[in-house]
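step: validate -> pass
step: tokenize input -> pass
step: predict -> running
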Amino acid sequence: MGRKQIDDCVEQLCLKGCVAVRKEIKLLTQGVVLPEIRDLDEVARKAVRRELEAIMAVYGDACPIERESDGWQGKKQRLGNLVFKASSTIHGTGLFAKVDINKGQQIGTYEGPTAKRDGTYVLWVFEEGEEAVGRSGRNLLRYLNHEDEGNAEFDGFDLFALRDINTGDEITFDYGGWEEE
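step: predict -> pass
step: emit ->
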């Protein structure tokens, strides 16, 4: 079973919110086969449960998805209304605009547990005078591809449009981290 299938199942389950994910973790621990994972083998099902447990460990009792009154739930829904993942001519899977996005508009926030080491879908933020902080992406923003002159950029873990992005355009950013000579 591939990593992509596991990630897709985790993403589907996380979109339900923290309360539902906590319940699903309990069911998975009891061996219940949820509809979202019925096509996965036992090893992959356990991997999904471990991923969900790691994500929930980050939020603890202060899960923002449960607090709809602070607007977080709306932001979560808004990301899916702005972007979608699809096959990319740049590399594998990419992130595309579902609607027109205006220059300067916030596209979303790179969500996920704190990363302790580099890996696929890890975004590192470097603030002057502080240690780098990494997040292992768990939302659609993890499908962003590199382009030297991308049409978006991160400010911390928040992604903003550098210029107007048309419906159907791939959203990209400059990964940085290296200097050309």
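step: describe -> Residues 4 and 10 are 10 Å apart (CA to CA).
step: cleanup -> pass
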